[in-house]
Structure formats: structure tokens, C-alpha cells
Amino acid sequence: MSGQGQDHCVVELAGERVWLLAQKAVYWPARKMLVIADIHFGKAASFRALGVPVPRGTTTQNLLALDALLAAHDCEEIVFLGDFLHARAAHAPATVADMLAWRHRHPRLRLTVVRGNHDLHAGDPAAALGIHMADEPHTVGHLSFCHHPETPAPGHVLAGHVHPVFHLRATATGLRGGLRLPCFLLGAARTVLPSFGAFTGGHAVRPASGERVYVTADAVIFALPPHC
Predict the structure, then answer these.
(1) CA–CA dist 37, 160 (Å, integer)
(2) Three-state SS for 166?
């Protein structure tokens, strides 16, 4: 692994050079592809349908975040690593209308969704969105796109599902209680992406031997030293 910048880190996975972006996504320049994990469209709407008072606007936040990535990178395809929709309530008319309006702004962009556990319950997104649906593993070149990190696959696995965050201790940050930051977890055979969604939470991870952690904070990404 090599190369580090303020807003992205360049790493090599199975011989493919990809960028880990501070915006919690992966960019594969050779394929002009963005890779997004766990966007969970409609999660807030699903909570409200159950009577839980949560803020509105998360779908708009997610779409604006995608627009920012598309403006910054030459992109022909987005691959979503599962949990594209959170639940059946994500098919609410207002949510679908927002997604269709976004899709009409990007008619030539290829969209692929690798089905995750939430997608199996939510059902496939509206056909009008023009999304190719795939089961895991979805392999392109030397990379295999999955939802679950442990999925057997022929290539280096890029996956989501875990929503990884890393707990930086107070001694490292100077802040009482430390910080929990979204992170990429890289190993020899798999890379786990942070959750991209605006309303998703996270699960603290500890790197195993040979794994590396890249944390994101305030539009900056950086590699943590081993044993941090």
C-alpha cells in the first residue's frame, strides 16, 4: 500500500490501484467507478413509519453526497455494496420521487446494486431507476464486490455490512472519551468500507494481525500506525 493525500489514500488491492476517499467511498480510476457501502435509503422514513421521531432529509443528504463525489471524479458507474434500501418503507412516494429526480440528472451513469440483507427484505428499487441488481459476489477484474465481508469470492473482496468505526483513545486525541471515526479496514484478501449513509451508525472494530485501518474525519483520510 502506498500513497497518501489529504482527501484520499491510494492503495493497491490485488494489483488494482484504488483510492480510499475521505467521503467514505472507494474510487477505481481504471474503471471510472465509485464504490459505496450501506447507503440505506429510506432508513429515516422506515423509523418514522414505526412512530420513531427522527429527522427528515437523510435521502437528500445522501443524494447530495453522491453528487459531490460525481463532481469530483470522472465516473461512469457506481457500485453499491448492499443495503441500498433499508426496508419496505423506503418505497415511500417521497423517497422514490427524490431518487428518480436524482437519476434523471445522471441518465448515463451505470448503477449496480449488490443485494445485501436489508435489500432482501426491502425488495428491489423502482425499475424506473434503471439499476442493475446483482447477487454477491459480483466480480469485475481482480475485485469482487460483496455485501458480507466473509463471502467466498474469486477476487479481493470489497464489502460493507459492518459499518466499521475506530475508537481513537483519549490519550491519542486529547479529547475526553476519545473519538469514534468511520474507517476502512484493509486486509490481504478483503477491504471493508465504512457506511456511506447519513443515518446509519457504526460498529467499533479492532484490526487483526496484518490488517490496516484508514480513518476519515472532516474531509480528511489518514492511515493509522499499527497498534494504535
Answers:
(1) 5
(2) strand
pLDDT tens for each residue of 105-116 = 999 999 999 999
List, as one string, the DSSP characters of 189-221. Answer: SEEEPPP-SSS---EE--PPTT-EEEEEETTEE
**Residue position matching grid coordinates 421521531:** 53
DSSP state of 122: H
The DSSP bridge pattern shows strands 220-223 and 138-140 to be unpaired
Matching residue, cell 460525481: 70
- Specify whether the CB–CB gap between 205 and 162 falls below 8 A: yes
Check if the beta carbon of residue 181 is closer than 8 Å to that of residue 148. no
Measured CA distances, 101 to 83, 105, 207 (Å)? 21, 7, 40
Rounded to two decimals, the pTM is 0.88
Which H, E and C letters describe 48-100, residue by residue?
Answer: HHCCCCCCCCHHHHHHHHHHHHHHHCCCCEEEECCCCECCHHHHCHHHHHHHH
pLDDT of residue 92: 79
Q: Which residues contact 221 (CB under 8 A, 6 or more apart)?
A: 6, 7, 8, 9, 20, 21, 22, 214, 215
Block residue for cell numbers 457500485: 79
